[in-house]
Amino acid sequence: MKFDQLKGSIVAMITPFQEDGSVNFSVLTDLLERQIAAGTDGILVLGTTGEYPTMSHEEDASVVAHTIRVVNGRVPVMVGSGSNCTATQIEKSLEYQDMGADALLLISPYYNKANPEGMYRHFAETANRVNIPCILYNVPGRTGCSIPVSVVEKLSKHPNIAGIKEASGDMSYAMKIAHCVGPSFALYSGNDDITLPLMGIGGSGVISVYANVMPAMCHQIVSDYLSGNQAQALANHLKYLRLMNDLFMEVNPIPVKSALNMMGLNVGPMRLPLCEMSPEHTAALQATLKEAGLL
Length: 295
Hints:
The structure is a single chain. By secondary structure, the chain is an alpha/beta fold. It contains 13 helices and eight strands. The chain has an eight-stranded parallel β-barrel with strand order 1-2-3-4-5-6-7-8, surrounded by five helices.
């Protein structure tokens, strides 16, 4: 399935683990089927929510292969292939392309960072080597660096760079890159709480953590907004805003995996250095899930 300027709710999948820490492929299958049945418009694996920093390259590849096999072309599959080493990013991108990924998510180079020209080359050289769409990923809270507006402007003209996941939470930054949006460059919210404001400046939807918990509602909110039923989209967005925010009361994906376990979906533990939530946050999240009718 081609990516083709996907609009809607793209779930940033968690990776379920067994109690011994190994990947739980049976539960992963169940989660993927649950997303597709709920109308999710696209699947992202190996994003931040998928705990890829603690997974081996072999585990990454096995999760990608399993996801592509289970999804079987029913919705597009995007794969996080980013690295702070451009050569590694290219290697992974080519591998996942060959495995059947429909699009790639490329993060800015964390820790070592880069000057603007190096940042541009980091993305452009990867996009030059693959023939599936590449989505930039701006999340300075994780990487310690933001993709400069001038670099986004330049990359938006690249024929194989199809958009940006904007997860800075900075509406001023989003406004500065909004003019890049067009038929060949999409803007996706990377923060559930500001999905509607970003769609108001031309966004195509969200790459969502919240969609792990309420996939049908996340799809509905975005679909309503894009189809012109913005009042209903806003009503539902505000109704579940507390839940969206509580899924970030501790570092992602600790709360969302905790929520899914509370809901009986048996996604297992996190891998260190991530661990269980504090008792106070656990109680607060449980109360919010009850309020949302999920427990």
